[in-house]
Amino acid sequence: MPNIKSAKKRVNVIKTKTLRNKMIKSNLKTVIKTADAAVANNADNKQDAIKFAIKKVDQACAKGIYHKNKAARKKSQLMKQLNG
């Protein structure tokens, strides 16, 4: 446990940021799985599901949770699934 006041604060800030990042990552994984299922089942809303998943990937990239190259790779994979 840290003794210095600023170090104690950093522990709390890191804990908060970790929870926020975990929440966003979990939601993103759920959205991507939903999009995958929509494409696999050839559902009527597969276009919308992919579009929403790409939007969420972009948001995660903007918040610094995904690296820009990983976001680009994910978006590319999603579009490949839709068009393939």
Automatic annotation (TrEMBL):
GO biological process, one term: translation
TM stretches of this protein: none
InterPro entries reported for this sequence: Ribosomal_bS20 (IPR002583), Ribosomal_bS20_sf (IPR036510)
Domain of life: Bacteria
Protein name, entry field: Small ribosomal subunit protein bS20
Pfam families linked: Ribosomal_S20p
Family (UniProt): Belongs to the bacterial ribosomal protein bS20 family.
UniProt keywords, alphabetically: Ribonucleoprotein, Ribosomal protein, RNA-binding, rRNA-binding
Entry annotated with the keyword Ribosomal protein: yes
GO cellular component terms attached to this protein's record: cytosol; small ribosomal subunit
Alphabetized Gene3D superfamilies for the sequence: Ribosomal protein S20 (1.20.58.110)
Organism: [Clostridium] methylpentosum DSM 5476
One MF term in the entry's GO annotations: structural constituent of ribosome
Role of this protein: Binds directly to 16S ribosomal RNA.
